[in-house]
Amino acid sequence: MDKNRYEVIIIGSGFGGIATAIKLQEAGIHDYVILERAPEPGGTWWQNTYPGAAVDVQSPLYCLKHEPYDWSRMFALQPEILAYTNHLLDKHRLRNKIQCNQEVTAATYDEQKHCWQVATASDRLFTAPVLVNASGILSQPAIPDIPGRQQFQGASFHTSQWNHDFDYKGKRVAVIGTGASAVQVVPAIAPQVAQLYVLQRTPHWLLPRPDRVIPKWERQLYKKVPLVQRLVREWLYWKLEARMIAFKGNQAALRFFRNKALRYIKKQVKDPALRQKLTPDFMLGCKRVLLSNDYYPALQRENVRLVTGGIERITPTGIQTKQGEHLEVDLIVWATGFHAAEDNIPYPVRGRQGLLLQDYWQDGAHAYIGTAIPHFPNFFILAGPNTGIGHTSALHIIESQLNYVMDVLLKMRQYGWQSIEVKEEIEQIYNQWVQEKMQKTVWQTGGCHSWYQTADGKNTTLYPTYSFLFRKATARMKEADHLVE
Ligand code: N01
Prior knowledge:
Blueprint: E1 8-11, H1 15-26, E2 32-35, H2 44-47, H3 78-91, E3 98-99, E4 104-110, E5 115-120, E6 125-128, E7 130-133, E8 155-158, E9 172-176, H4 182-189, E10 195-199, E11 206-207, H5 216-224, H6 226-241, H7 244-247, H8 251-268, H9 272-278, E12 290-291, H10 295-299, E13 304-307, E14 311-315, E15 318-321, E16 326-328, E17 331-334, E18 349-350, H11 357-360, E19 379-381, H12 394-415, E20 420-422, H13 424-439, H14 442-445, H15 467-473, E21 482-484
Parallel strand pairs: 1-2, 1-7, 2-3, 4-18, 7-19, 8-17, 9-10, 9-17, 10-13, 11-12
Antiparallel strand pairs: 4-5, 5-6, 14-15, 15-16, 20-21
Helix pairs in contact: 1-12, 5-6, 12-15
The structure holds 3-acetylpyridine adenine dinucleotide (N01).
């Protein structure tokens, strides 16, 4: 018997992979494997260990619906989220299903055998009729090709590849980029470094982070009366969901949040010149809104300087700015984000007749409910095209997608289908609707370019309306919309 043959292959052991495995087991499907490229499971929360790494959605909502957790604070730090993923792995006995150090190099559909062949960098081949990609949208670090980058003789790494062997204490450090990762790194390292330069290309809108320690009595209450925690989760869900009113382009709601952010800059930043540098000229929401209580204070420390003029090049000893200044540094931190809108499946995927998914997506990624693609039977993507969410928990989306995926899998079993794929016209109609809805959102009208978009400005990452509508759209598989064999 071929040991590498399974009923389902899952790629990635982050929240998507773990949630899929739990659902499979609940449905009595135990013949599956999770392939993980890293040496340990956990996905993004194993990978992102930079100082200050934390979730920016309230923890009671940032967990699987039926897997509440004893969170110690409202916005959990990375170690606690990783502990939660480990708790899930142990509770559901998933560890022996995961094969680590298995970087997938290709996935190819065999039309004769109705199954996927998945090759890994260690020369192994796994096969299964069903393939679930849970490799995550933010797993490919983007480091810009600034001239001279290779010549730098100090230390340098991306936030998601933090080198803990390098001791940054007492050193001169440059952080390039001012997005969600940077606003967490900067306050975390600022008190410990000798000098910190924060290189900002574009200011981002920032709001206070309503973080707090969850006191013992409250945690006890959640344990003793789980209904209370469920109600808190529900309340948080609807509170965050209301933000979508603004992102959908409601001007009054946008003004409300913009004024709140402006008041916050005024309150936290005393110097009008610095305030001006930190005030974006695009609409709030166009780029991801950041949450931080300590970023602006960190920028005003004696040993920290915001540098805004632009980078000319990297030199062997530092950064040459466009204003002619040379910043001597020992460490460059690339807080420059990820390849998300393009190139977010990190291996070639070949469907029917050898069709390459990356070619099928040459004008930007698209999928039916962000999950299924015509010509790629029995293949599902979690956190796929246009499923991203800027206002609530990404886990809500993953769990919604899994309702559809599980419905498909159970029907495949029930009716003995060998393959199933969404009809091309259904996928096209769906994506026309997505892009039409998108045109009214602040992500398209807000006057900025963001990682949500391809180079041409097409938004291939975000879901354009309320997340409860996504839950509804993914509730079950509509047989008439699919081709089955
Ligand atoms: O990346 P980003 P991130 N020269 O793309 C700048 C999630 N996340 O890693 O705005 C100079 O937001 C770029 O400048 P500009 C979350 O979804 C979640 O911070 O393009 N600068 C920008 O300032 C988030 O949205 C958490 O002009 C350059 C920065 O680099 C996503 O990850 C925590 C440049 C990139 O910001 C990505 O966040 C952290 C160049 N050539 C992250 N190229 C949670 O809390 C780029 N930049 C869950």
